[in-house]
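Module 6 notes. Inverse folding takes a fixed backbone as the condition and produces residue identities as the prediction. Think of it as a translation problem where the source language is geometry and the target language is the twenty amino acids. Below is one complete input and output pair. Work through it position by position during the lab.
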């Protein structure tokens, strides 16, 4: 996905009275362009509309492995990793790669901040095609499930 993150390494001499601090991830600003298209379907399976959204924004990205390139590599090989995307102080989204599943890569995600408090902390788990780039893969929500997916799709 759209990130590059450098790690701040805290250095110092180790002693009995000194605990070494872990490196703190440094966020990077990445320009994102997202297109979402979906059919809206009611509980009986009837099509009642479409969603067609295009968003362009600068996003603050933070990963557990250093930068967005390493996160995308971890997605391609489906190795555990995390990334946090901060669009604004009120919209922050978190992804965690869980590992291989059903010929894809299982990823869980959630809002850690959202203007609608009902959406915060609710998770969605998807099995994405990790032969695609992460941004392309997450556009296909056909394998997703969970409370956040239900809120997002109205079903």
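Target side of the pair, the amino acids:
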């Amino acid at each position: 996905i759209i990130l590059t993150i450098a790690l701040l390494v805290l250095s110092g001499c180790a002693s009995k009275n000194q605990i070494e601090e872990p490196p703190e991830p440094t966020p990077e600003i990445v320009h994102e362009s997202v297109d979402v298209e979906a059919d809206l379907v009611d509980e009986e399976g009837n099509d009642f509309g479409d969603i067609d959204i295009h968003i362009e924004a600068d996003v603050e990205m933070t990963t557990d492995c250093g930068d967005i390139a390493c996160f995308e590599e971890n997605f391609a090989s489906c190795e555990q990793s995390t990334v946090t995307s901060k669009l604004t102080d009120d919209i922050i989204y978190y992804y965690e790669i869980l590992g291989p599943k059903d010929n894809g890569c299982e990823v869980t995600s959630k809002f850690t901040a959202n203007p609608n408090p009902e959406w915060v902390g609710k998770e969605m788990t998807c099995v994405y095609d990790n032969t695609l780039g992460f941004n392309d893969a997450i556009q296909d929500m056909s394998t997703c499930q969970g409370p956040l997916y239900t809120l997002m799709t109205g079903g």
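Reference fact for the lab report: The first strand starts at residue 6 and ends at 8.
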